[in-house]
Amino acid sequence: MDVGFLGLGIMGKAMALNLLRSGFRVTVWNRTLSKCQGLVELGASMGETPAAVVSKSKYTIAMLADPIAALSVVFEKGGVLEQICEGKGYIDMSTVDADTSLKINEAITNKGGKFLEAPVSGSKKPAEDGQLIILAAGEKELYDAAIPAFDVLGKKSFFLGSVGNGANMKLVVNMVMGSMMNALSEGLSLAGSSGLSQQTFLDILDLGAIANPMFKLKGPAMIQSSYPPAFPLKHQQKDMRLALALGDENAVSMPVAAAANEAFKKARSLGLGDLDFSAVHEIVKVIGSSGEAK
Ligand SMILES: NC(=O)C1=CN([C@@H]2O[C@H](COP(=O)(O)OP(=O)(O)OC[C@H]3O[C@@H](n4cnc5c(N)ncnc54)[C@H](OP(=O)(O)O)[C@@H]3O)[C@@H](O)[C@H]2O)C=CC1
Ligand SMILES: O=CC(=O)O
């Protein structure tokens, strides 16, 4: 099957590679075109623009940074809209808000194409291992057609109904994740400041009711102040911002998420946006010691 892939960042590169390895004929595009080279060497074709990719592909998948990127790849010169038409599908797997997704849906369907939003839960390693959780919504026919690709990319896919539900579900999930990361950071800092072993604290967490893969994976690296980017902090802050906007719309009070968002914003302002989102720990450490990092 011919599949297009737009956006070869941390996630997109791993996902496009899995499709290629599984026998899909993949045409790739990335804003920084040089990043296509590695996949081209492994057998992918390259399109010079998103439109060129869509013209060659029955289905085109996008995995882009944020709403600005998702909109620009569709609407700008050389964008998806120039070539999308009846018989073609566009699947946006980026994490964006429902409004962004609805705008893209309207434009694609006005041209006769089919649209599916399909953000994913799971980070760099699940993307590499084809173990993502796919939160799809939109055109059911396109969802059914995309199942062979989703089976390569993920361990489970959900069809959540109309466009917007996938985006919103992803934001709710990541809002919880961002708050939990802040709680873990505070716990590590409090344990350390109280003279307790941070590793023993993690071991105890891991045996109890609040054990989870994220604490287990990120905790030991956080103790070492090591934050190689799997899920960039700037994207987690974007997700908190969009989730808080969803809370505003629905008059849902979310003081915990709002505080977490402030910590991620502070981390961004200190230049930590390209590190892993666990780098928010640096902020908690600073706050915890009255200005002096411990
Ligand atoms: N990393 C993770 O663990 C997860 C990420 N996500 C979500 O997936 C999406 C991608 O994440 P990730 O791969 O980590 O992000 P990266 O920052 O690694 O990659 C972002 C991609 O978006 C492209 N891009 C950025 N701005 C624009 C623009 N204005 N126009 C066109 N392309 C643009 C980048 O191109 P260029 O190379 O030229 O900069 C790059 O291909 C995000 O929405 C993120 O929230 C979801 C689940 C997990
Ligand atoms: O969006 C990030 C993730 O880990 O899921």
UniProtKB/TrEMBL annotation:
Keyword Oxidoreductase applies: yes
Name the record gives this protein: Glyoxylate/succinic semialdehyde reductase 1
UniProt KW keywords: NAD, NADP, Oxidoreductase, Stress response
Catalytic-site annotation from UniProt: 170
Organism: Dendrobium nobile (Orchid)
Any single Gene Ontology cellular-component annotation: cytosol
Record domain 3-hydroxyisobutyrate dehydrogenase-like NAD-binding: where: 164-281
Lineage of the organism: Eukaryota, Viridiplantae, Streptophyta, Embryophyta, Tracheophyta
Similarity-based family: Belongs to the HIBADH-related family. NP60 subfamily.
